[in-house]
Amino acid sequence: MLTESSSAVDENIVYQPEPGGETAVYVRNACKSFGVGKRRATVLRNLDMNVKKGTIYGLLGASGCGKTTLLSCIVGRRSLDSGDVLVLGGEPGSPESGIPGPRVGYMPQELALYGDFTIKETLEYFGRIYNLPGEFVKSQMEFIFKLLDLPPGHRYVKTLSGGQQRRVSFAVALFHEPELLILDEPTVGVDPMLRKSIWNHLVRLSTDHGRTVIITTHYIEEARQAGTIGLMRSGHLLAEETPQNLLVNHGLRTLEEVFLKLSRTERAKKHGALTASGRAVRPTDPSQQEDRGHDNPAFICTADNPDATSIGIPNNRTNISPSPTSNQYWKSSKSVLPRANEDGIVGLTFSPSRENLEETTRNRHAVRRLYDLNVNSPIEGFSSAPFDSREVISNENGLIKTGDRSTPSCSSASSSCGSTEVSKRPTKKRGSRTFVLSMPTAHRTAALIRKNFLITLRNIGMFAFVFLMPGLQSTLFCLAIGRDPTSLKMAVVNEELDPSVGRVCNYTTDCTYSMFSCRYLRFLDNSTIIQVPYQSLSDALDATLRGTVWGVIHFGHNFTEELLERQINGNAVDKETIQASRIGITLDWSNEQIALTLQHRLVGGFNDFNRNLVTSCDYQPVIPSIPVEFMDPVYGKKNPSFTDFMAPGIILTIAYTQAVSLTAAVFINERKQGLLDRSLVAGVRTSEILLAHLVTQFTVLVFQSSVVLLVMLLVFKITCQGSLALAMFITLLQGLCGMFYGFVVSSLCDQQTSALQLSLGSFFPNMLLSGVLWPMEGMSIYLRYLSYFIPLTHAIEALRCIFARGWGIDRPEVYWGIVVNFGWIVGLLLVCLTVIRVRKYTG
Ligand SMILES: Nc1ncnc2c1ncn2[C@@H]1O[C@H](COP(=O)(O)OP(=O)(O)OP(=O)(O)O)[C@@H](O)[C@H]1O
């Protein structure tokens, strides 16, 4: 373990570069653009960088000049459009390099910490990721807490101040004592005293322990303690020198003055070049140039000999850092022999002709061997990776060229770095080296699972969403959906009533033929219909128009007599009698469900009244019924509830949407906060992240599905005729399908808002077309075909068959629900992996 007392460090210690150092990070002709078409902005343009092992490299430059982009390419989180990066002897992502893995400590610009972790838990988490021994973790924690003056370990990260949080983030990068530290602005928000102590520690790490540090900072003067300084502007380095050399060579007192001078000189050169070439002179305000996407024609790099291509290789044995401003590359057209120039660069130049093809290929191998000797790769059998990018390119004419490394290759025509033919990376399949779904390791997967559970349980919002929401949703569904409406006011206009002649309501149940209106009203369900008496039909209709009541029940003056007449004389009665014997009902049909309920109750009430009357008069109760009888149903109940119909769809929708939103939220949050990048750079694999989330999500799903089924089946007595285990299995599968859709959403969206839009945008078509709300048989035939392609449709049908019909897995309706769900899971996983892969190489 590194200790603070390992070297007596003066507060104003200045780093002296170690002679004969090896290369830790090597960047050549790095080009990187963002966006497409007119919005394409070139951020790195033919950038060269050489970081020697055991040194501190201060990367300085104005905001937006591309520092973070460069670091993200170095740590393998982004890919260059063209050019090469070697880290600790290999391309980031290749097995030869230290990235991803414990050889590198990365502090991203974002905080990249879990707010719901304590400081101690944060360090322990990364200790588990790196598989550090417990004793080491303990002692290292003591040391780091002292060194960085961290608050007590039990404090939650989210409760710390901004500066304290950055120190914790810095502690994470230092914790496992990596060979290479990559720190993106570690001293922002840190007080001057602590800043000094951080720098002193970095110096100690490099001088006493041979660690390499790349650090970006806005505080230019603090970088005096660095061994080398790279002054960056508009995507390339203005200078790469020791601070002392920069000050002495330019005869200035501060690095800030040197930076300004170099910037002005470059601007003047560009200005001159542009004016001399007769082209329009662009504004020379540096800020304008920084922000314009750096597509300044002044960066156009032209080859001395456009027909020739050349390769420049650092010769570390001579230990001279190539400076992009100096004549760093040696060139000689038509030569095929490697030669070293005065800057220690070994160069080869090839003529790209058909005849030279064989020779060219031979020379490539020669160069590779030379490179192996010169780069001091610690890896035996150093792969062809560094040279693949320079490999021969077969163009459409069958001609072969090598990538031109001796001359900057920013494109002139398209203003885009690396867009010329020679600077493309043709033969190497970049994806194959970095995107491998390799086998997960136990320690990292366990650390990730533990972290997932801790976050879920600690965050109150998350906890409520995960554990309380499904129960609440299903309870609300059962309480709010499918129940019959109650307390519906109906106006009753009973002209039969006339107390002056003794026509009052009696409550007889005998075979009495009087006041049938009152007798009928007694059979109306009081919980559904509230009878409100009105004196006149016009008043009652007026009340309906005003929305005071849902309709009117009207009895004529001689209702009882006319009804008897109609029943006794049957077909012989006249039209007037028929009209006077009817109960006139006028309903407000603006609400179909309410009107249907009233209709059902009013007709049912008449049937009950009729049955009661004929029974009391000793007739057969079936006499007044229509001669159509519904026998016992084959499946389901005679009086089915709409809740029963909707329940399967709601259960699956809850499982699906919960999984989508949880997965998308977790991943977008992690990526936005830089947590995903930090974990991936630390060596966590995509397969481990997926597996850990799968385990966490599956556990959550089992809980959620159990709660939903419990609430629906046990508390609200939703009918389930079939196997509960099968129902549970389909519900879990649907949840997994939602989880994989959540992966797709999170891989496509960078922001929570766009994820929300995508999730909600797909939620409604899913819900409307899958038959949750209405039978699919009610849809047009074309829409029905579309709905078969929705993940919920078959699963809902399967669950309905289990619930209502008690069918098992032997039925096609049930097993199709399972098969289609599996298909969706596989399909969504493939989409997600493709999106991640595409975005890695375009972002
Ligand atoms: N994903 C992206 N898509 C489009 N443009 C991007 C993206 N990432 C960075 N950029 C642009 O690239 C340029 C360089 O950004 P970068 O973050 O590398 O700058 P920087 O030097 O680190 O700045 P700072 O010191 O402020 O952090 C900026 O103009 C930025 O807007």
Automatic annotation (TrEMBL):
Keywords: ATP-binding, Membrane, Nucleotide-binding, Transmembrane, Transmembrane helix. Signal peptide: none annotated. Residues 312-330 have a biased composition (Polar residues). It is a multi-pass membrane protein. One of its GO terms (molecular function) is ATP binding. The chain crosses the membrane at residues 460-481, 645-669, 689-716, 723-743, 755-774, 786-808, 814-836. One of its GO terms (cellular component) is ATP-binding cassette (ABC) transporter complex. Coiled coil: none annotated. Residues 25-259 form the ABC transporter domain. Residues 612-839 form the ABC transmembrane type-2 domain. It is found in: Membrane. Residues 406-421 have a biased composition (Low complexity). CDD domains: ABC_DR_subfamily_A. Its main location: membrane. This is ABC protein, subfamily ABCH.
